Amino acid sequence: MLDLPAKDDGIAGAKLAIEDNNTTGRFLNQTFKLDVLNGDVDELIKGATEKVAAGDSFIIADLEPDALLKFADALAGKPAVIFNVGSPDTRLREEDCRANVLHIAPSHAMLADALAQYLVWKKWPNWLLVYGPRPEDKLLADSYRHAAKKFGGKIVEEREFKEPTGSRRADGGFEQVQQQIPTFMQGAKDHDVVLVADAGNLFADYFPYRTWIPRPVAGSAGLVASSWHPALELWGGTQFQHRFKRLNSRNMRPIDYDAWVATRVVGEAATRKQTSDFKVLSSFIHSPGFEVAAFKGVATSFRSWNGQLRQPIIVGTPKLLVSVSPQQGFLHQSSVLDTLGIDKPETKCKAYTQ
Amino acid sequence: MPRLSLFRSALISAAAISLTASSADAFTAYVTNEKDNTVSVIDTEKLEVIKTAKVGQRPRGIVMSNDGKWIIICTSDDNDVKVYDAKTLEYVKTLPSGPDPELLVLHPDGNRLYIANEDDNLVTVVDIHTGQVITEIPVGVEPEGMGMSPDGKVIVNTSETTNMAHFIDTTEHKTFDNVLVDSRPRVAIFNAAQTQLWVSSEVGGTVTVINPADRKIIGKIHFEIPGITREAIQPVGIRITKDDKIAFVALGPANRVAVIDTTTFKVLKYILVGQRVWQMYFTPDNKLLFTTNGASNDVTAIDVANQKAIKSIKVGRYPWGVVVSPN
Q1: pLDDT in tens for each of the 354 residues of chain A?
Q2: Given this structure, which CATH class describes domain A11-106+229-311?
Q3: Is B115 within 8 Å of B126 (Cβ atoms)?
Q4: Between chains, do B162 and A272 touch, taking CB under 8 Å as contact?
């Protein structure tokens, strides 16, 4: 693939935020540092426990959902906050939420809602939903169904894409795909858009330009919702992208952005409170008044019911930003940002309210 | 009697004409169009664009030389500052700056130009006559706002990600104090009496007023507009009248300019202008205030005494900065 994750995926963003925090810290006699631990979840638990015992309190985690839960439970009750940047699974913010985890990465629910708002705004409300065979694909498909109901979209038909895709690298691979996708898409009820739910990005990219009838593709390929886009130049984004590129010699990916935000959350709290005391910083970060500017035009902050960062979401094609959700006209009684993702009245998370 | 009546009416209309004439000292406003790489020149009497001139790439911050002969523009994508003749709009010369210069301010000595380089955490000081860099001053992340004290002794720079107003001594060119303000400070400006420094926070949605003598915060202004979400209220440009009584604050995507009493810090009024209003500038007589409305590609002229928008003038794409000639 052309966009395989870089080796320093995520870490690069945290590194930039450490520089930004230290530039600010210079005026306040504060310094920030970053240590990187790699390994399986048990090794990470061991390493993190030692770090926390030595006084390091803020952890950025890029882990699969089950590993994240194991990691969070092992550190429960210790003076540590874990920032989830690696997993968009909605259940981690809902039935499986943990009091010591804050979610910087947008949930599948937020991403689906952002895309759905745009499609509804565009007056393309009829969707053909294609989802993969894996459990996480089915969860993502649930997010699209939920978003359709929430914003007035209509899923006219659903299809599960079970077939193994041909190897694109083998000779003739593309020829097989060229045959396979159109026939799979044959005979569907008319629709405006094909929504593909492929959480692992295993097959979605085969869909654009190969549908049976000419329709745009959105979801896991084509028009995609994400926390960041390398072409974003709004709201001072140009300078931010330049700083990142200068430091890391590549474009900023969503996970780099998420790690930058996580690190800036700690920096912002330390600057405002002028302390490194864990209790003071943690309670400030969790308080309703805490906000951090994150190149999204409006302040980002944490939802009090599940620890999810509320933020505008980018809707874009691989090369360009198409729009930013929430879209105009979608209203909310407290913050329009809460039209994206699981809102307070519907949350299943109990860790934050108990 | 009918005659007398006619005579009086003629008198009144004559008076009205002379009033219009006196209010209409013609100045020239210059507007940078960020997306078009041009400057629109506006006659402030006719309230019309009289000329559009090509300048360098991505023009943003704009000032005039103290004698009114030059306009000096941050051409951000050229990573330098360009000087043009104010009358002919002909290119005069290029001044050095750091990468991505955004806002600039000229010292009262008419010589030292202070430039915020958004991309490298530095304020560059340039001699506009020799074109030499005098010094570079390290500040916070993404320096932007530049407020010069009227006596020229202090310059205040705001840094958008560090969220501070940095107080810099213009003799030593060293930072001597840093005041934390709300998120993403965009503009800093002193009042004429030098008793107040106003700083706008775009993402925080507030304006902080600081006493420059002891750097204590003496006021924090919040904005509430019915029907406008809190997120859309993003203060950027600030201008204070010469008599120090009234401040105008541009509120970005709220499409309004707030009028504020500088004694009570109360918002008196919101004036509806164009979309995404950022920078502003008074005519020298303080009769008109021009606002750049980036998203609607126009400039609004506000009648300062009556606190009313009187005309919106179409300019180029994404108007960013504005300056009005002193004569």
Answers
A1: 566 677 888 999 999 999 999 998 988 889 999 999 999 999 999 999 999 999 999 999 999 999 999 999 999 999 999 999 989 999 999 999 999 999 999 999 999 999 999 999 999 999 999 999 999 999 999 999 999 999 999 999 999 998 765 555 555 566 777 888 899 999 999 999 999 999 988 889 999 999 999 999 999 999 999 999 999 988 888 889 999 999 999 999 999 999 999 999 999 999 999 999 999 999 999 999 999 999 998 999 999 999 999 999 999 999 999 999 999 889 888 889 999 999 999 999 999 876
A2: alpha beta
A3: yes
A4: no
Q: How far is A215 from A165, CA to CA, in rounded Å?
A: 21
Residue B47 CB-density burial (10 A; 0-12 exposed, 13-18 middle, 19+ buried): middle
Q: What's the CATH fold of domain A109-225?
A: Rossmann fold (3.40.50)
Q: How far does A211 lie from chain B, in Å, by closest CA?
A: 37
Quick one: DSSP state of residue B263?
T
- B229 contacts A27? CB cut-off 8 A: no
Domain(s) labelled CATH 3.40.50.2300 in chain A stretch across: 11-106+229-311, 109-225
Residues of chain B contacting A27 with CB distance shorter than 8 Å = 140, 162, 164, 166, 175, 178
Q: Count of CB atoms within 10 A of residue A254's CB? A: 23
Tokens linked to A224: 């995609």
The beta-carbon neighbor of B178 closest among A27, A292, A336 is A27
CB contact under 8 A, A336 and B231: yes
Contact B140 A28 (CB under 8 A): no
Type and span of the H or E element at A218: strand A217-219
> Rg of chain A over CA atoms, in angstroms?
21
C-alpha to C-alpha distance for B143 and B115, rounded to whole angstroms: 9
Chain B residues inside the 8 Å CB shell of A20 = 141, 161-162
Chain A residues with CB under 8 Å of B101 CB are: none
Q: Count the residues in chain B.
A: 327
The distance of A203 to chain B (nearest Cα, Å) reads 38
DSSP-assigned letter for residue A223: B
CB B206 within 8 A of CB B221: yes
Return the H-helix or E-strand segment holding A298. Answer: none
Give the best residue of B203, B222, B236, B278 to mutate against chain A (max A CB count within 10 A). B203
Which residue type occupies B231? E
The DSSP secondary structure of B194-221, one letter per residue, reads SS-EEEEETTTTEEEEEETTTTEEEEEE
A297 touches chain B (CB under 8 A): yes
**No. of H helices and E strands in chain B?**
1, 28
Contact A74, A59 (CB under 8 A): no
Question: In A, which residues are within 8 Å of B180 by CB distance?
Answer: 271-272
| Cβ-contact A43, A71 below 8 angstroms | no
Residue B29 pLDDT exceeds 90: yes
The minimum CA-CA distance between A27 and chain B, rounded to whole Å, is 7
